[in-house]
Design goal:
Blueprint lengths: L7 H8 L3 H31 L4 H14 L6 E5 L3 E5 L2 E4 L4
Antiparallel strand pairs: 1-2, 2-3
């Protein structure tokens, strides 16, 4: 259940024990279930990200943001001429 994202207090209730007892006797199972589920999702996401099609683009962007530290940027600077940066593309606006 841990691997499926079921909250630990719900697991304890289902099994019929207290949360501290669940943690005391099933700590490894709780941790390993979550790790295995996260690994399976990461593997699926990775396969999509290196694939083809629209879902590959979305998956690759998500991967780059969460695993590689990439981010969307929007920046305004003023130094006599106004420059706008949108997604790494610069546009120079005419002075008015």
């Amino acid at each position: 259940m841990s691997g499926l994202g079921v909250p630990q207090d719900d697991i304890a209730t289902t099994v019929g024990i207290s949360l501290p007892t669940l943690h005391k006797y099933y700590r490894a199972e709780l941790d390993n279930g979550r790790i295995k589920a996260n690994s399976a999702v990461a593997q699926s996401l990775y396969k999509k990200a290196v694939g083809d099609g629209q879902s590959a683009v979305v998956a690759a962007i998500f991967w780059a943001k969460t695993q590689m530290g990439w981010k969307d940027t929007s920046k305004l600077e003023f130094d006599g001429k106004l420059l706008i940066e949108l997604n790494d593309h610069w546009a120079r606006l005419p002075k008015s």
